[in-house]
Amino acid sequence: MPPVVLPTTTASTPPAEASDAKSVLEFSADELAGWCVARGQPRFRADQVRHWVFARRAVSFAEMHDLPAVFRAELESDLKLFAGRLVRHQTSRDGTEKLLLELHDAQQVECVLMREPDRRTVCISTQAGCAMGCVFCASGLLGLKRNLTTGEILEQVLRLDRLLPADERITNVVVMGIGEPLANLRSLLPALETLGGQHGLGLGARRITISTVGLPERIRELAALERPYRLAVSLHAPNDELRNELVPVNRNIGIQPILEAADEYFARTGRRVTYEYVLLGGVNDAPEHARQLAALLHNRTAHVNLIPMNAVSELPFYAPRSPHARRFAEILEQAGVAATIRKRKGADIDAACGQLRLEHARS
Ligand code: SAH
After folding, report:
1. Residues 131, 183: contact at Cβ < 8 Å?
2. What does DSSP assign to residue 132?
3. Ligand 1, from 130, 136, 139, 208: best to mutate by most atoms within 8 Å of Cβ?
4. Which residue has the CA at smallest separation from atom 2 of ligand 1?
5. pLDDT > 70 fraction of the chain, expressed in percent and rounded
6. d(C-alpha 66, C-alpha 340), whole Å
């Protein structure tokens, strides 16, 4: 079925907050309590504000009616709830929704809400652009602009949460949007802690997947935290020669050190590592590639997630036909390596990471 672009609704951003003010999402619980105390308020005001922001889905400080009016006025004049501006909101026929946000410095990032009967998963970005240069990916085509802040990462989750009906909650987070998450742990980790912590969204580490191009030092750093985040490693090739072509940063890394760091991750967290493998027709999808991949992974506690290439208009890659993809999965399974083929979501709204941002930048 050819992709159909649905009409775009451009929603409005909550009004009347100072334009260069900092977002309340940039504050840790402690910092916000300090901010309140500095304005002559008790520390618990911070809990009230956070409750409104995270649990009650407030879109403005004005509606936080259990706060004193003078304090609400101070919040409104000195802080913002969300620092970004919503520039596009697309809804797919399968219920997937995608937002394009513009940040204070005109950088744009994307985030996606995916619905299944028993789950609501959000996919979030960690950088504006990406430095990794994977040849099949839209996110890196314009290079890396900058890291996102903790507040900018949280804002994506909270804006998507506000699209859900009152009785539904986000159940899972995948950090698989634009950027390399392990290159921005400094902003990402506090955001994830907040989501799982008191007044967060109840999203503990087990419900969060972090996807990485495979930076061994950073994987070890994450492993050392011993938090049960699910780790996904984007392998995409079963040997260094091919991986060097598809994932250029591999030239300075190599597959073996990545597998060893991932083994350490499993040993320290007990979480089985997922290996992502984008299937590129005629490039990395031959039976021989599957056999090589099986040889790399068969004695590891691993799971392979095969992702048929999501076409990007200016890139010369395409997904193999589905019987071919299934054959690839069967070879892995027969060698004792668990494998699944990822379902496509939001195909009609270019929901693969980086595509909407790229389209906007180009136009
Ligand atoms: N930088 C991280 C996270 C962002 S990319 C990483 O490399 O894992 C998230 C996943 O989407 C990665 O596995 C990436 O390789 C994959 N991906 C990127 N572009 C894609 C495309 N056009 N089609 C299918 N998967 C793609």
Report:
1. yes
2. S
3. 136
4. 212
5. 93
6. 49
Query: First CA to last CA across the chain, in angstroms?
Result: 25
Kind and range of the H or E element at 256? helix 255-269
* Level-2 CATH architecture, domain 22-80: Orthogonal Bundle (1.10)
Distance separating alpha carbons of residues 154 and 170, to the nearest angstrom:
13
The Cβ of residue 76 has, within 10 Å, a number of other Cβ atoms equal to 18
* Dihedral angle over CA of 68, 72, 75, 76, nearest 10: -170
**pLDDT for 54-78, tens place per residue?**
999 999 999 999 999 999 999 999 9
Measured in Å, residue 20 CA sits from the centre of ligand 1 at 33
Structure-token pair, residue 205: 């580490």
Look up residue 255 and give its two tokens: 């597959």
The model's pTM: 0.93
Interstrand relation of 119-123 and 230-234 (parallel, antiparallel or unpaired): unpaired
Ligand 1: distance of its center to the CA of 355 in Å?
11
**Residue 354 Cα: closest atom of ligand 1:** 19
The residues annotated with a catalytic role in the active site are 110, 353
Is CATH 3.20.20.70 correct for 85-362?
yes
Residue from 114, 132, 208, 211 to probe ligand 1 pocket by mutation (most atoms less than 8 Å from CB):
211
The pLDDT value given to residue 357: 79
Ligand 1 atom with the shortest distance to the CA of 276: 13
Residue identifier of the C-alpha nearest atom 12 of ligand 1: 234
Structure tokens at 83: 């620092």
Could you read off the pLDDT of 26-62 as tens digits, one per residue? 999 999 999 999 999 999 999 999 999 999 999 999 9
CB 117 within 8 A of CB 332: no
Protein residues with CB under 6 Å of any ligand 1 atom: 132, 134, 136-137, 176, 180, 211-213, 234, 276, 278, 307, 309-310, 312, 352-353
The alpha carbon of 300 is separated from its chain's Cα centroid by a whole number of angstroms, namely 26
CA of 137 to the centre of ligand 1 (A): 6
Q: Round to whole Å and give the CA distance between 150 and 130.
A: 17
Q: Which of 144, 176, 222 to mutate to test the pocket of ligand 1 (most atoms within 8 A of CB)?
A: 176
Where do the structural domains in the chain lie, given as residue ranges? 22-80, 85-362
